[in-house]
Design goal:
With 275 residues, the protein is mostly helical. The protein has eight helices and no strands.
Amino acid sequence: MIRLLLVLGVVAVILAVVMILGGAALGAVFTSDRKARRPLPAMTRAWLLCIAMVLLVGVATEGILLLPAMGIAAIGLLIMHIVIDSRAGTARERSPQETERARLVEEFGDDGVELLDGAQAAIERIERSEAAVDGWLGNDLDFTADLTAIRENCRATQELKGLITELRGIAEPDSDDLAMLEDARTKVRELGSRSWARVYALQGCAEKAEEIDQSLRDDRARAQLAEKRDDIRSRMAARLYGVEAAPAQTPSSSVDKITGLAAAYQEIRGRAGGG
């Protein structure tokens, strides 16, 4: 019995070390990209409880169920770690971008944020275009008024939608309530149309700026082609017409001599053959 207890004690120490190291490794894997801290006290209590249960099962069964108990404890700790870590991850603080996005949605609504995103994207297309950078669109581009108008329309729309919801919640609305609701809905549609009209106008300006950019690129391509053509033509003209303008080249005396001797030889051979 003493030997069994000694063996169980050694196994318990080894088990504790293995479980602690394994838990730390698993924790690093599952929380490497998380900024929230793990709830260590809860996990510590879970470790202690698992160690105690494994030792109790090992002693009660004289080591027969020790390995199954270790496996069950490890699985339970892993599941608990994942659950606690996932809860900690969902409770993490928002990033500055997420906080700003949530504020905009609360102030302007989802449709308003979509309008502002569309307007800002169109403005960025205009401002980074070559036509704007090189001054083809003027040097005083300012879209503050457009963005301000869209924000005011979206803010008013969001407020009207809230009031519409409140008025609709009133029990037994009378004719005046219904008429005001209809006027409010009409105003919401009108404000939305105005905002989208400004966004479409900005997008149209962005497309025109990009058309100018394409025209400038085409002009540069044509200029490069003309320059290349002129270079090739000048070099070809120098070679072609320079050859024609050069003085006529007469054959050398050796050529004339060989030509005359060959003709005389043929004449002599002809006479000899005829004789």
